[in-house]
Amino acid sequence: MRALVAFVVGLIFAIGLGVSGMTQTHVVKGFLDIFGNWNYNLMGVMGGAIMVHAIAFRLMMKRSSPVLDTKFFVPTRKDIDGRLLLGAILFGLGWGWAGICPGPGIVSLVSGQMEFVLFVGSMLVGMKLFQLIDKK
Predict the structure, then answer these.
(1) 99 Cβ partners below 8 Å, 6+ apart?
(2) S-S: 22 plus which of 12, 17, 102, 120, CB 3.0-4.6 Å?
(3) What is the dihedral sign for C-alpha 28, 29, 35, 39?
(4) What is the pTM of this model?
(5) Which whole-number Å values give the CA distances from 35 to 86, 102, 112, in the listed order?
(6) pLDDT tens per residue, range 9-58
(7) Packing angle, helices 25-32 and 82-98, rounded to 10
(8) How far apart are CA 21 and CA 129, in angstroms?
(9) In this structure, what DSSP letter does residue 108 have?
(10) Domain map of the chain by residue range?
C-alpha cells in the first residue's frame, strides 16, 4: 500500500513539475536571472508550494504518527555548519548553472535528452563520492 501511495504522490508531483515549467531549463534560468531578463512566473509555483507545505506540515505534526508509518522522521539538528553551507552553495550554483533541480531533473529523464541523463548521472556520482568521503 505504501508503495502505491508513494507512486501516486510522485506521479502527481512529476505532473506538477512539468505543468509549472520547472522541467524546462530556460524557464528556471529565467527565474534565477533577477538582474537580467527576469521570468517571475515560477514565483507563484514556489509561493504556492511553500503555502501548501506550511499548512500541511502544521496539520501533520498534530498527529501522533504519519498515516502510513509508525513515527515521524524529522531532522533534529538545528546548527549551521560548514558542511551545510558548502552543500547549499554547491546546490545553488549547480541549479543556477544548469537550470536543473534534482526533482525536475529526475522527472525530465523521460524526455531522453542527454543533458538530463548527464545531470542525474553526475548527481548520483556526486552522492556516491560524498558517501565515500564522509565515511573517513
Answers:
(1) 25, 26, 27, 28, 29, 32
(2) 17
(3) negative
(4) 0.79
(5) 24, 24, 32
(6) 999 999 999 999 899 999 999 998 889 989 888 899 889 999 999 999 99
(7) 120
(8) 31
(9) G
(10) 2-135
